[in-house]
Every structure is written in structure tokens, then in C-alpha cells.
């Protein structure tokens, strides 16, 4: 299996979009792979108390799509969205997923003691240590939910996709679901030992032919 840098993965996504598959579909399919993992490992999902912590970029967009799919498919006992920043700061596919989430009626303000936390704060493109609200979210995931399992989307937030060395504080994940191919951080120590269970999930067959 090939190991990609974040730049190479971006090129895979770009080529796939140019081939005719919209980015929104890629995000939807990535979210479905995470939800599939949750359905397999945390059944019955309807009994779970879930918090999805979302950043402002594409990783946060994945998280918003995951929350919507969980709500529609399983209607968990509790489901709360914690969005880092104001919704007005979202752009592109992340903003579209936020609007779809609101249409589906997911309550973003439920106060729960979660059994499962989805880390969708930062993706593989982070350079340098996390800071500001993202760092606050990382610390909250690590300390505020002691009874919860943590599933990271693509990478535990705070790690760099380009390096095996953590640049700063990072989420302690029970499992990580990444897409298409492992990135450098998934293969190089010590970061590769910080993922929990690592799952490499295919998004679309169209992606594979662009991995050179």
C-alpha cells in the first residue's frame, strides 16, 4: 500500500474532482466510512451518547456529514455538535454540510456526558503545533470526556500528516479512520503508534487510479 503526503492526497482529491466526482460526494463518502466503522464497533449506535467536535475546514465538514448521517441512520440517544468558531466562518463543502445538518434537525446544544466523541477538528494538513480554539478543543477532547471512546477522522487532531513527530499537543484517539491511503504520520513512529486502531477506508474506486 502506498503512503502519501498530504499534498499528494490533495492531488488525488483534485484529480478525482476534475474527473467528475464533486468534492461534496467525496466528503459524504468519507463520512459514510466513519459511520460504518462506528456502526460495527459501537452497536447499537442508537444507545450511544455522541459528541462530534468539528473544526472550520474540510475535516470539520467531514464531522458535520458524520453527525447528519448518524442522526438520519441511527438517531442516537444523544447527539451534540461542538463547532469550533462561528458557523458564518464555514466555507465550501463544510458550509453546505452545516446547512444540511440544520435542515435535518440535529440539536447542537444538548448537554450530554458522551460515550463516544468524534474528533473532526484538524486534518492532515496541519503545519506546526495546534493553537487557539483548535488547541482548546484538543484539550477538551482529552480531558472533559473521561468515559468516552474517541474516533479521529483522518488523523488525531494536532498531529501532522507529513511527519512522524508530533509538533505539539494532540488528541488521544481510540481509533482513527483515514481515507484512500495511509499518510506519512500513519506509517512513521512515534505518530503511527498514536492512532489507536488505524482503519484505511476506500472512498471511491475512481480515487485509486490517481495514486501514482
Mean of residue pLDDT values: 91
- Rg: 16 Å
Measured between the Cα atoms of the first and last residue, the distance is: 11 Å
Helix content: 25-40%
Question: Which features would summarize this protein structure in a list?
Answer:
single chain; 212 residues; alpha/beta; six-stranded parallel β-sheet; 7 helices; globular; disordered C terminus
Walkthrough of the structure:
The chain is α/β, with parallel strands linked by helices. The chain has helices at 6-18, 23-41, 58-74, 92-103, 132-143, 184-187, 205-208; strands at residues 49-54, 78-83, 116-120, 149-153, 175-179, 197-201. It has a six-stranded parallel β-sheet, with helices on both faces. Helix 5 links the parallel strand 3 and strand 4 (149-153). The longest helix is centred in the first third of the chain and has 19 residues, at 23-41. Mean pLDDT is 91; it is low at 206-212.
Amino acid at each position: 500500500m502506498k503512503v502519501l503526503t498530504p499534498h499528494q492526497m490533495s492531488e488525488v482529491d483534485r484529480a478525482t474532482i476534475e474527473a467528475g466526482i464533486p468534492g461534496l460526494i467525496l466528503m459524504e463518502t468519507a463520512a459514510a466510512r466513519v459511520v460504518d466503522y462506528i456502526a460495527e464497533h459501537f452497536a447499537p449506535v442508537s444507545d450511544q451518547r455522541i459528541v462530534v467536535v468539528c473544526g472550520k475546514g474540510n475535516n470539520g465538514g467531514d464531522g458535520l456529514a458524520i453527525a447528519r448521517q448518524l442522526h438520519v441512520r441511527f438517531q442516537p440517544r444523544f447527539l451534540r455538535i461542538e463547532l469550533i468558531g462561528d458557523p458564518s466562518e464555514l466555507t465550501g463543502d463544510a458550509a453546505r454540510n452545516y446547512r444540511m445538518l440544520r435542515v435535518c434537525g440535529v440539536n447542537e446544544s444538548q448537554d450530554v456526558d458522551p460515550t463516544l466523541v468524534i474528533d473532526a477538528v484538524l486534518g492532515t494538513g496541519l503545519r506546526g503545533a495546534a493553537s487557539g480554539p483548535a488547541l482548546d478543543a484538543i484539550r477538551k477532547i482529552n480531558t472533559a470526556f473521561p468515559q468516552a471512546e474517541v474516533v479521529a477522522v483522518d488523523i488525531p487532531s494536532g498531529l501532522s500528516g507529513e511527519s512522524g513527530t508530533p509538533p505539539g499537543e494532540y488528541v488521544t484517539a481510540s481509533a482513527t479512520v483515514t481515507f484512500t491511503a495511509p499518510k506519512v504520520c500513519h506509517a512513521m513512529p512515534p505518530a503511527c503508534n498514536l492512532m489507536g486502531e488505524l482503519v484505511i477506508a476506500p472512498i471511491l474506486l475512481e480515487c485509486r487510479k490517481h495514486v501514482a
